[in-house]
Write a structure and sequence with these properties.
306 residues, single chain, mainly alpha
Length: 306
């Protein structure tokens, strides 16, 4: 099944285009899909290791600096010159400021990475995102719709607290259930991602008036989202690996290459539907990235061995 991890994502995009009205209705379930993914992430880590967060402060700060400062700035430069549509640029910048994707612990584990560190990065980036993203976007895009800080904080709080508690309780008191669920972790993550992509991608594409969108603009956006995934992945491989030990490096390489663009797509569907197209297109790159990472015999050369 691993080699087909990205298939439901592509199927979700196709169905979203074919049935946009169904995607609009399904988008009300997007939060539920994200909660399931977060619970799955919580079941893939050792909670005893998670408790030693203070000792991992340096590693966490390094990950957050690269995830929220270094790479968003590097990606902004080509985006500024390739995208003439301010709303697309706004959406792309928002996607670069999103948290680490919830499937990062899963992919970290199958590549001999530190899945506990990946989980710490997921949670820490989800805490930082609603504090940093609105400030950066309002400062950089004065003409764009301003994000309301409090609803975004409530949204992230729901996605952090409830799934984390559920994941911890299952791990602590229902270990057999955790083992059973873990056997199907890849399948569950893949299918839930497919449903999430169907709901958000179909909704965003359905609200985009392509008659007023130049082909060059869309091609530029596609290039940028692949740069955000694969470009970051390869840059991390050659420039970050010297900073941290192998297991942590693998987790960081994977985490930084996959942003939870569903957050930006879901929020912008409310504030600025046209801008939501940019993070929605990022699902295309995610589909290829997840398929690439899901087959270790193809992608393992990127990572350090323990």
């Amino acid at each position: 099944m691993a080699q087909f991890f990205g298939l439901p994502i592509f199927v979700g995009m196709i169905l979203g285009i074919a049935f946009p009205f169904a995607a609009v209705e399904a988008s009300t379930m997007a939060v539920f899909f994200l909660i399931v993914l977060m619970i799955s992430a919580g079941l893939s880590v050792n909670w005893e290791n998670i408790q030693h967060i203070p000792s991992r402060l340096r590693e966490t700060i390094i990950g957050l600096v690269f995830g929220f400062i270094v790479f968003p700035l590097l990606l902004y430069v080509p985006a500024y010159y390739l995208l003439t549509d301010d709303q697309f640029l706004y959406g792309f910048v928002f996607s670069s400021l999103c948290p680490i994707a919830m499937v990062a612990p899963y992919f970290s584990r199958i590549h001999n990475g530190d899945s506990e560190y990946a989980m710490i990065l997921v949670v820490a980036s989800m805490v930082l995102c609603p504090l940093l993203a609105p400030f950066v976007l309002s400062y950089s895009f004065s003409t764009s719709a301003a994000l309301n800080l409090l609803p975004l904080i409530r949204y992230m709080t729901l996605l952090i607290i409830l799934p984390t508690i559920i994941g911890f309780l299952i791990t602590r008191f229902l270990p057999r259930l955790r083992i059973i669920i873990s056997r199907f972790e890849g399948l569950v993550n893949s299918l839930i991602l497919g449903l999430l992509v169907f709901s958000l991608f179909g909704n965003a594409v359905g609200k985009l008036n392509t008659a007023y969108t130049e082909t060059e603009e869309i091609l530029g956006l596609i290039f940028l989202v692949f740069l955000q995934d694969f470009g970051v992945l390869f840059i991390c491989r050659y420039f970050i690996s010297v900073l941290l030990k192998p297991g942590v490096t693998n987790a960081l390489i994977i985490g930084l290459s996959m942003k939870n663009v569903a957050i930006a797509a879901g929020v912008l569907l409310i504030y600025d539907p046209r801008a939501s197209f940019a993070p929605a297109v990022a699902f295309v790159a995610h589909g290829f990235l997840f398929s690439f990472l899901a087959i270790p015999r193809i992608s393992s050369w990127l990572f350090k061995l323990k």
